[in-house]
Amino acid sequence: MTCSRRDFLKDAVSTTAASILPLSAFVLLSTEEAKAAVANSDARYAFLIDTNRCVGCGMCVKACKNENEVPYDAPVTRMWVERYIFTKDGEIHIDSPMGGRDGFTDNEMYGEEIDPDDIVKAFFVPKGCNHCDNPPCVQVCPVGATYQTKEGVVLVDREWCMGCAYCIMACPFGARYFHPVEKVADKCTFCYHRISKGLQPACVQSCAFGARRIANLKDPDDPATIIITTERVAVLKDLYGTKPHAFYLGLDHDVR
Amino acid sequence: MKWHVLHPLWVTIGVIGLIILGGRLLVPDDFGVHGRNFTYGYHRLGSIQDWKDFPVKYQGRDSCVQCHEENVRLNSASVHSAIECENCHGPAVNHPGGVQSLTVDTSRELCLRCHAQLGYPNSNRGSIPAIEDRRHRRRRDCSTCHDPHSPKE
Q1: What number is the average pLDDT over the span B51-73?
Q2: pLDDT digits (tens, 9 = 90+) for A200-238
Q3: N or C: which end of chain B has fewer CB within 10 A?
Q4: Which of A46, A195, A35 is nearest to B54 (CA)?
Q5: pLDDT at A21
Q6: Residue range B69-85: average pLDDT?
């Protein structure tokens, strides 16, 4: 064999590299196939959250925990309500006790009482998974346990997730958590089991003030879709570029 | 080429071959790219049906009215009409099948979620008639005087 050292190294590296590629990675969708996969859905769900209406009752958090079997007393939640209080000294006080599960019944925050006379502005912001169009949590999963359905809902495959929690770190909104019982990553599923039967998500149904609503962005007659497309809406953390699909009315500039 | 030089290469290829073989055996057949692209659509297709099969707990007001007509009628005519029955009574699941009677939570804390005076200017909270917890009939359940289904009576 008259093979030079250089040639041998080149051959060795290229052979090894070629055998590393798993065969399924060679499935490349043509652009037509890719468009067809997304286009053949007649729904793209999004949240419409009106912070002007939210009173901080926390019924949505309670309903979500009951409906989705999230351990009630564990400090984990699929969605939560934050309270923002702006006081006269220019401070912003933010809290979300147990995610707002028990509502907000007094002005005590971290052991200190805030005097209502000191309050300049105060409001509540319901949050949860934004079911982004470019979800970073899906992108980082090393095993393919999380994915986005054709309706835009981001889900976790409980049987495949290995609990590395990489996705929990990746979400800029903090929407994911580690399920203490199932030992996998968990998050808001948009109540997929409900919307696929024509019901509303648990949080939407339980909101008595209409602060939480859902929209099907592909349905031009959906009243919530009309609001999203014609009124002034905002999203959280726009600079991350994840294209979140939870649209807010009345979102204050200081909301994190 | 001497065998001892090529040996690590054969070991590497062997290990990678074992991993690919293990994948072929252990990975379910419906695993693949389903949807937009590899980045966002690489998953086990059966998972979607798993999530659709998750049991529904909250049934909604329409299922309550079938038997509890009177209370639903009272509630629908009152200022509490927008509140779902299950918000206070808990999820129905398959009541009366599984759970004979849903707990009636008459605690003060439940009502204070909306009716505690917080004094926030410009919040929708201000439009709800509220009490200062410390000053109004302390430690008693609100339902001793107020009917939750039609509170203004």
Answers
A1: 92
A2: 999 999 999 999 999 999 999 999 999 999 999 999 999
A3: C
A4: A195
A5: 61
A6: 91
Select from A239, A188, A251 the least CA-distant residue to A46. Answer: A188
A vs B: CB pairs below 8 A? 178
The pLDDT assigned to A41 comes to 81
DSSP B50-63: HHHTSPP----HHH
* B103 — pLDDT class (breaks 50, 70, 90): confident
Domain presence at residue B43: yes
ipTM of this complex prediction, to 2 decimal places: 0.88
Boundaries of domain holding B131: 106-143
- Give the CA distances from residue B56 to residues A67, A164, A194, A242, B27, in Å, rounded to whole numbers and listed in that order: 7, 29, 7, 30, 30
Please say whether the dihedral angle defined by the alpha carbons of residues A236, A239, A245 and A251, taken in this order, is positive or negative: positive
Task: Please give the model's pTM, rounded to 2 decimal places.
Answer: 0.86
CA distance A89 to A202: 39
- Tell me how many domains chain B contains: 3
Task: Give A66's contacts in chain B (Cβ within 8 Å).
Answer: 57-58, 90-91
Please indicate if any CB of chain A lies within 8 Å of the CB of B125: yes
* Inter-chain CB proximity A19 and B116 less than 8 Å: no
CB contact under 8 A, A16 and B13: yes
Does residue B153 lie within any of the structural domains? no
Which residues 13-52 of B have a C-beta within 8 angstroms of A? 13, 16-17, 20, 23, 31-44, 47-48, 50-52
Residues B64 and B99 in one domain: yes
How far, in Å, CA of A49 to CA of A57, rounded? 15
Confidence of residue B152 (pLDDT cuts 50, 70, 90): confident
For residue B96, is the peptide bond before it cis, meaning its omega torsion is within 30 degrees of 0?
yes
Q: DSSP letter at B116?
A: B
User: Position of tokens 């055998």?
Assistant: A19
To which residue do tokens 């206070």 refer?
B88
Assign A75 to helix, strand or coil: coil
With respect to residue B41, please indicate whether it lies within any of the assigned structural domains.
yes
User: What integer pLDDT is reported at residue A40 of this predicted model?
Assistant: 66
Picking from B118, B127, B132 by the largest number of A CB atoms within 10 A of its own CB, the best residue to mutate is B118
Residues in chain B closer than 8 A to A27 (CB atoms): 32-33, 38
Please give the full DSSP string across A186-245, using - where no structure is assigned: E---TTHHHHTTTPPPHHHHH-TTS-EEEEETT-TT-HHHHHHHHS--B-S-GGG-----
